[in-house]
Specification:
By secondary structure, this protein is of the alpha/beta class. The chain is built from 15 helices and 23 strands. The strands form seven sheets. Strands 12-15-16-11-10-18-19 form a seven-stranded mixed beta sheet, with helices on both faces. Helix 4 runs antiparallel to helix 6 and helix 11 packs across helix 12. It is globular. Bound molecules: nicotinamide-adenine-dinucleotide. Nicotinamide-adenine-dinucleotide binds next to helix 9 and helix 10. This is aldehyde dehydrogenase (NAD(+)). Belongs to the aldehyde dehydrogenase family. Homotetramer. Keywords: NAD, Oxidoreductase.
Length: 496
């Protein structure tokens, strides 16, 4: 099945049938490929090839660079079904979420095509007569992309579509848990690029490797920007290394996203939003809802309604019409169980969280999503456990709810459910949520590509995707031109 998909996506079989790193599907634990993990030397060689590609690509006019991305977007449209299904096999996403991830890739390609004609700079009023000032944006250099298992293709495309229209080649190190989808993206890219005469060789490369390969990318002085998506632990290692060589980083790290549920909230809407954002992708989204901060007057009712809704959620094979697929691996399951134990020890009352479908899938890790009523925001609640656990805490007044929302080390996504305009505005104001994303009457997950995506504090501070996130992929230059016959100095200085 997986081999047939890879074949239709144009992946050379030698890339997934040789090597000693086995790739297992989280759906049933079956082996779906073997790949060879590269080390430092091969990463350095890839970066060398990318640096060469940069010399040519930066000279190609940006709208032509956009044309390459337009063609890549077309290839994705043609292969959406296969790539989406491959995402399901390799990352365990349900059909709709696998397809949705590819749709996100298509959307960012469309965005980047438009952007390729809008890499605008500024003209600035000069204080000197006969002078003009402007600000221009130039290609930056090699972009290194490190990605996580849970968005195995979309995160790469968010970076790569922008990096390429901005004039930069890309070297991508995907998660070692999801190398096959990366090989498929690369095969599609190569097919499109080979017919595009202005595209130099090695414009986009993939290096399949583990942490060592990631470190080689991080440390290579020819990599101008490292865009790294993954855990805060990883970011803590990557950030100082990139900073030590004064390169740039875009860090997209862990989240611990909350919903404030107020007394005026539309509870029907809230139940649907909570279900999708807490249970979807089996709780393995960076924007998954992990904390429900409910007003004491609605807390009991919402918990009851959620328990009823959770009990009806279909858990199972993600390609067979279920809503919750598996966790990525055993480690993830064990992490979830440890967190539930800790929650109990900290006074929590646990609903759900048990292993499911063990008989049918002894080598896979399905769980029923958990709801945990906590006496307060204790240590376990402040930690991101990458599994479907929803902690519920109560609040009395809105200021307290905002304080709870902000009282965790992460700062990715957040939301409030309210029909009170004062609460809605306060939540999105300077004294409201401290997160990169703050929504009203929408859950915290499922961002659109048009906005800048990312978060504060331990989430890393990076922004990707829409708005002006492209500026991280270019270097800014301030230009002053003197078209007069004099040499007036700035600040009125005379020097003779
Ligand atoms: P992870 O940190 O284990 O791995 C992510 C990537 O980093 C992998 O490619 C891995 O090989 C690489 N890596 C690990 N250590 C490294 C090092 N020292 N140097 C260089 N590379 C290194 O994360 P994961 O388990 O794959 O993904 C889940 C995590 O990712 C969660 O914390 C989730 O919140 C986060 N995430 C964040 C976003 C976001 O946009 N903020 C998006 C998706 C996932």
């Amino acid at each position: 099945m997986v081999a047939a998909l890879l074949d239709r996506l144009g992946v050379d079989p030698s890339l997934y049938s040789q090597g000693d790193h086995a790739v297992h599907s989280p759906i049933d634990g079956s082996r779906i490929g073997t790949v060879r993990l590269v080390g430092k030397v091969e990463v350095e060689q890839a970066v060398g090839r990318a640096a060469e590609a940069f010399q040519a690509w930066r000279k190609v006019p940006a709208p032509r660079r956009g044309e390459l991305i337009r063609l890549y977007g077309e290839a994705l449209r043609q292969h959406k079904a296969e790539l989406g299904e491959l995402v399901s096999w390799e990352a365990g996403k349900i059909t709709q979420e696998g397809l949705g991830e590819v749709q996100e890739m298509i959307d960012i390609c469309d965005f980047a095509v438009g952007l390729s004609r809008q890499l605008y700079g500024l003209t600035i009023a000069s204080e000197r007569p006969g002078h003009h000032m402007r600000e221009t944006w130039h290609p930056l250099g090699v972009v290194g992309v490190i990605s996580a298992f849970n968005f195995p293709v979309a995160v790469w495309s968010w970076n790569t579509a922008l990096a390429l229209v901005c004039g930069n080649p890309v070297v991508w190190k995907p998660s070692e848990k999801t190398p096959l989808t990366a090989l498929a993206c690369q095969a599609l890219f190569e097919r499109v690029a080979k017919d595009f005469s202005e595209a130099p060789a090695h414009l986009s490369q993939v290096v399949i490797g583990a942490r060592e390969a990631g470190e080689a990318l991080v440390d290579d002085p020819r990599v101008a920007l490292v865009s790294a998506t993954g855990s805060t632990r990883m970011g803590r290692e990557v950030a100082p290394r990139v900073a030590a060589r004064f390169a740039r980083s875009v860090l997209e790290l862990g989240g611990n996203n909350a919903m404030i549920l107020t007394p005026s909230a539309d509870l029907d809407l809230a139940v649907r939003a909570i279900l999708f954002s807490a249970v979807g992708t089996a709780g393995q989204r960076c924007t998954t809802l992990r904390r429900l901060i409910a007003h004491e007057s609605v807390k009991a009712e919402i918990v009851e309604r959620l328990k009823a809704a959770y009990s009806k959620v279909r858990i199972g094979h993600p390609l067979q019409g279920n809503l919750v697929g598996p966790l990525i691996d055993r480690q993830s399951f064990e992490g979830m169980q440890r967190a539930l134990e800790q929650a109990r020890a900290e006074g929590g009352v646990v609903f759900g969280g048990e292993r499911q479908l063990q008989d049918r899938f002894p080598e896979a890790w399905y769980v029923s999503p958990a709801i945990v009523e906590m006496p307060g925001q204790s240590a376990v609640v402040c930690h991101e456990t990458f599994a479907p656990i929803l902690y519920v805490v109560g609040y009395q007044d809105f200021a307290e709810a905002i304080a709870l929302n902000n009282a965790v080390p992460q700062g990715l996504s957040s939301c409030v459910f309210t029909t009170d305009v004062r609460e809605a505005e306060l939540f999105q104001s300077a004294v409201g949520s401290d997160c990169g994303i703050a929504n009203v009457n929408i859950g915290p997950s499922g961002a659109e590509i048009g906005g800048a995506f990312g978060g504060e504090k331990e989430t890393g501070g990076g922004r990707e995707s829409g708005s002006d996130a492209w500026k991280a992929y270019m270097r800014r230059q301030t230009n002053t031109v003197n078209y007069s016959h004099e040499l007036p100095l700035a600040q009125g200085i005379t020097f003779d």
